[in-house]
Design goal:
The chain is mostly beta strands. It has one helix at residues 136-143; strands at 18-21, 27-28, 33-36, 42-44, 52-57, 61-62, 71-75, 77-83, 98-103, 106-108, 118-126, 129-134. It contains one helix and twelve strands; from the N terminus they run ββββββββββββα.
Length: 150
């Protein structure tokens, strides 16, 4: 492409609602923690490596026979999910630190000795759970050692 020589109507992405292709044959419930897998497709939260938290599913859908056959609506932002238990229980000292995916509604303090993917960053903790900030750009930068979430 060459440089502009006239005005350009550059479109922008508005709002928080995002759409993404789903991993094949996976059922995601509305409200579930959603992850992006290493191939770039959305899947439900689960103990796995190579994924990163993307946000909250806005609808219940099942992926098609092939990856990307079905599109899922999801939303980044800050959402409350269940807190893990025992030594992986997230407390107020973890605010501003990363948390990790246990399943599609639970996060933990640690990566489970390298078995869990990054969900996002702890924004707050209360008696009902953990407030998690989902931001794929910040998460990828953190994983690459380029940024501190705080």
């Amino acid at each position: 492409m060459t440089a502009l020589t006239a005005d350009r109507n550059t479109v922008r992405l508005e709002g928080e609602l995002r759409q993404g292709g789903m991993a094949a044959s996976v059922l995601v419930y509305a409200g579930a923690l959603v992850m992006r897998n290493a191939a770039g497709y959305l899947t439900k939260g689960a103990t796995a490596t190579g994924n990163v938290g993307a946000g909250r599913a806005e609808e219940r859908k099942t992926g098609g026979a092939g990856a990307g056959d079905v599109t899922l609506g999801y939303r980044p932002g800050i959402y409350r999910y269940a807190n893990s238990a025992s030594t992986d229980l997230i407390g107020i000292t973890e605010i501003g630190k990363p948390c990790y995916v246990v399943d599609d509604q639970t996060v933990a303090k640690t990566d489970g000795t390298g078995t869990r993917s990054l969900a996002g960053f702890v924004e707050g903790v209360d008696t009902l759970g953990v407030w998690v900030r989902f931001d794929e750009v910040a998460a990828q930068a953190y994983l690459a050692g380029l940024a501190n979430p705080a």
